Amino acid sequence: MVETVKPRRRQARGERRIAQLLDAAAKVFAAEGYVAATMNAVAAAAEVSPGTLYQFFPNKESMAEALAEQYLDALSVAQARGEGAEVLGVPLDDVINRMVDPAIEICLANPGFEPLFSWSDRLRTAVVERVDDIIARRVPEIDPSRRRLIATVTVRIFAAVLPQILATTGREQLEYTRELKRVLRAYLLDISD
Amino acid sequence: MVETVKPRRRQARGERRIAQLLDAAAKVFAAEGYVAATMNAVAAAAEVSPGTLYQFFPNKESMAEALAEQYLDALSVAQARGEGAEVLGVPLDDVINRMVDPAIEICLANPGFEPLFSWSDRLRTAVVERVDDIIARRVPEIDPSRRRLIATVTVRIFAAVLPQILATTGREQLEYTRELKRVLRAYLLDISD
Amino acid sequence: MVETVKPRRRQARGERRIAQLLDAAAKVFAAEGYVAATMNAVAAAAEVSPGTLYQFFPNKESMAEALAEQYLDALSVAQARGEGAEVLGVPLDDVINRMVDPAIEICLANPGFEPLFSWSDRLRTAVVERVDDIIARRVPEIDPSRRRLIATVTVRIFAAVLPQILATTGREQLEYTRELKRVLRAYLLDISD
Amino acid sequence: MVETVKPRRRQARGERRIAQLLDAAAKVFAAEGYVAATMNAVAAAAEVSPGTLYQFFPNKESMAEALAEQYLDALSVAQARGEGAEVLGVPLDDVINRMVDPAIEICLANPGFEPLFSWSDRLRTAVVERVDDIIARRVPEIDPSRRRLIATVTVRIFAAVLPQILATTGREQLEYTRELKRVLRAYLLDISD
DNA sequence: GATGAATGAGAGTTCATTCAT
DNA sequence: CATGAATGAACTCTCATTCAT
User: Fold this and answer.
1) Long-range contacts of B32-36, Cβ-Cβ distance < 8 Å, separation of 24 or more
2) Does A179 sit within 8 Å of B183, measured CB to CB?
3) B37: nearest CA in chain A?
4) Percent above pLDDT 90 for chain C
5) What one-character-per-residue DSSP string does A85-146 give?
6) C1' nearest to CA of D61: which nucleotide?
7) For C60-74, b where at least 16 C-beta lie within 10 A, e where not — what string?
8) Is the pLDDT of residue D3 over 50?
9) A164 and chain B: CB distance < 8 Å anywhere?
């Protein structure tokens, strides 16, 4: 009984550390981009020695992957809140809002998201698959390979406008967000026909 | 007298050299991306010593900028061929075709374009300005700051789908191209109203 | 009273631990060589944390020394079995057999021996002293400093052929062993005259 | 004509550098052993920046190989001086002298030899092949595989006594050298029968 | 005792850039 | 102009060792 606590403490310390390190990595990725980011910079940002980094992550890529995983989880959680089965009898605008808004919130809260989204095929593919799913539910009659095409383009559009949203604030940020939704609506309305 | 000839020859040789070096740079940027590309690799690709590179370009960035300039020129030439003042009485589809098709041709012919387009704000801004111009001519009543917004998003969308077009061939490439045009038409039609 | 028991248990446990750790060290030394072996690797091989290693050995060197000591003991035991005072009235071949065979058995059974034998002057010197002793008993009239020289060369020869014996198996191993004995006999016969 | 000189100068500079770097490497290998030697130490010993090292050698191993090659050449040259076809009608002692003496001279003059000889299978094998050759010429009736065995053991013996020769000076050095020859003679006489 | 996170110096290696030739 | 050797700071990653728990 006591013994189930002790290991937990150790793990807890480790997991806290991991979260802390990933946080630092996200900051550095955001500031420099994934390719230009260095492990030393991440270590410094985490106020930790380089060796500590390597106790948890064998290399830079693995940090990126862990971060990507974390973001995917966050996306799932955020989108699950407003989704459900109501993809069908609902206006397209609502579906778009319920996809885009939490995604942007996560990107704003996690500045590491955008550089990873550019870099990680895995992360992009995972998001594409979700969008593909939603399209499948809403427009079941569509051809799967065409659906994949549309999902891919949809995600690319999101990724394309995202940097503008992140680079701005206030009214301008809102405008870009509105514009993003406008593009998506126009594009996806065109599809449904 | 001799001096007016020799310099010309020198300049001519120099420009040939520059073109050759930029070609090599484009190849390396295409293969590795701008950040990962190394000057040594560019020198090797040009079959030239690193020192020679620095005789023409003070640093890596300046190579990128020179390349960007070159691409902008190519864009101008290509788009001038089919444009003119006929932005007005013409269907939107035609305008889009005359913008997108030559751009994609250039990107396919110059594999260094895409990495630079991601990297160089200057290149992207220049293209945004052209699109802004066209919109201004076609929809003069639109508010300039909103026009700039639309132009920016338009270019971002192009940049977003471009990698998919470049990464694929044949039918898939055509499909992505068609999809890109579809997005742009849907978005810009929405605007014009 | 309780206190005389507990410490013993503790010591017993400690010695078992030490044996276990030295075993792991031997394996790693054998696989990587002393210099390339890492304490982390030893800890992992012992299924123990690095900290535990340092509870018993202040540093890497001390592990090597403890292992060397252990091997020296094993050598003593093994050679005591067939030795005694019968160094005198006995053919040289027998003496060589009774020295070489147990030594090789120990080396085969303890793969950590060879790397340490190359590394540890102390281990080599101890063996040299034993050989010196035997020569002294068999050829008492020999000059001590010359005797030391011969003992040193004898041990070096053994150490030189040993890797070949350990690197091979079956017939080839036997051949190298026979060759080793042949060298030693030829050399030492030459001496006795 | 002038053009055949200019490139030579460049190459000459490079080759002089290479010789200089290999010299430094030899010193460091001699002082620390191959495994413990570091590229930074070699660079420092050559009074050169680490980068310069890597302009000529892609890694530590390649330095070792280049050095080994150089030593093999030196061995060839040295042994060619006193050898010829007179392996046959000549006393064994003479053959041994003509093999061992130049080898030891080289080892004394090139302190990098010994550590490499321990490390490089390639170097050892090359020397084994030479010895094999000589045995083949002198004792043609011997079975090739047994000949190889003998050559291997012979070289191992040389390598085994070598450190003692290098670690000592003056009379002691001479004694070890004499002892080495004694071992070899005794062993090889035993063979010829 | 045992753990494993933490350290930090240092290893090998790279690369933009400079400079003597 | 061209060369390629030279630089040195910076990078990724390792490892003997320490220390809080």
Assistant:
1) B33/A35, B33/B115, B34/B64, B34/B115, B34/B116, B34/B118, B34/B119, B35/A33, B35/A35, B35/A36, B35/B119, B36/A35
2) no
3) A35
4) 75
5) TTTSSS-HHHHHHHHHHHHHHHHHH-TTHHHHHHH-HHHHHHHHHHHHHHHHHHSTTS-HHH
6) E12
7) beebbbbbbebbeeb
8) no
9) yes
Question: CB of C190 within 8 A of CB of C168?
Answer: no
pLDDT, tens only, C20-79: 999 999 999 999 999 999 999 999 999 999 999 999 999 999 999 999 999 999 888 887
C16/B179 Cα distance (integer angstroms) = 72
State the Cα–Cα distance between residues D96 and D192, nearest whole angstrom: 14
List the domains of chain D with CATH numbers: 1-57 (1.10.10.60), 60-192 (1.10.357)
Which two three-digit tokens encode residue A165?
A: 């949203």
Q: How many CB pairs under 8 A join C and D?
A: 64
**Phi-psi label, residue B168: left if phi above 0, alpha if psi -120 to 50, beta otherwise:** beta
CB-closest option in B36, B163, B187 to A182: B187
Report yes or no: D157 and D142 within 8 Å, Cβ to Cβ.
Answer: no
User: Are B139 and B191 in contact, with CB atoms under 8 Å apart?
Assistant: yes
Average pLDDT in chain D: 88
Alpha carbon distance D122, D69 (integer Å)? 9
What pLDDT band is residue B82 in, cutting at 50, 70 and 90?
low
Confidence at residue A83, expressed as pLDDT on a 0 to 100 scale: 54
Task: Determine the pLDDT at residue D76.
Answer: 85
pLDDT digits (tens, 9 = 90+) for D97-148: 999 999 999 999 999 999 999 888 889 999 999 999 999 999 999 999 999 9
**pLDDT at position D11:** 58
Q: D5 pLDDT exceeds 60?
A: no
Displacement of CA C72 from its chain's centroid (Å): 5
| The pLDDT value given to residue C128 | 96
Q: How confident is the model at residue A8 (pLDDT cuts 50, 70, 90)?
A: very low
Helices and strands (H, E) in chain D, number of each type: 9, 0
**pLDDT tens-place string over residues A40-69:** 999 999 999 999 999 999 999 999 999 999
**Contact status, residue D134 vs residue D99, Cβ threshold 8 Å:** yes
A160: contact with B, CB 8 A cutoff: yes
- CB of C55 lies under 7 Å from some atom of strand E: yes
Closest by CA position to D160, among listed C162, A15, C39: C162
Tokens of C115: 């790397």
Contact B182 A190 (CB under 8 A): yes
Please answer yes or no on whether C186 and D182 come within 8 Å at the CB atom: no
DSSP code for B132: H
Q: What is the pLDDT of residues D27-59, one digit of tens each?
A: 999 999 898 899 999 999 999 999 999 999 999
Structure tokens at A35: 């390719």
Q: Chain B, 22-81: which CBs lie within 7 Å of strand E?
A: 37-41, 50-51, 53-54, 58-60
The least confident of A147-151, C119-123, C147-151 is C119-123
Q: Judging by beta carbons within 10 Å of its beta carbon (0-12, 13-18, 19+), is residue C4 exposed, middle or buried?
A: exposed
**Residues of chain D numbered 34-53 and touching chain C (CB < 8 Å):** 35-36
The single residue listed with the structure tokens 């010299």 is D23
Long-range contacts of D96-101 (CB under 8 A, 24+ apart): D96/D181, D96/D184, D96/D185, D96/D188, D97/D181, D99/D131, D99/D134, D100/D158, D100/D177, D100/D180, D100/D181, D100/D184
> pLDDT tens digit string along A14-29?
778 899 999 999 999 9
Q: Which of residues 5-24 of C touch strand E (CB under 7 A)?
A: 10, 13-14, 17
Nearest to C183 among D33, D157, D179 (CB): D157
Q: Is the CB of residue D39 inside 7 Å of nucleic acid strand E?
A: yes
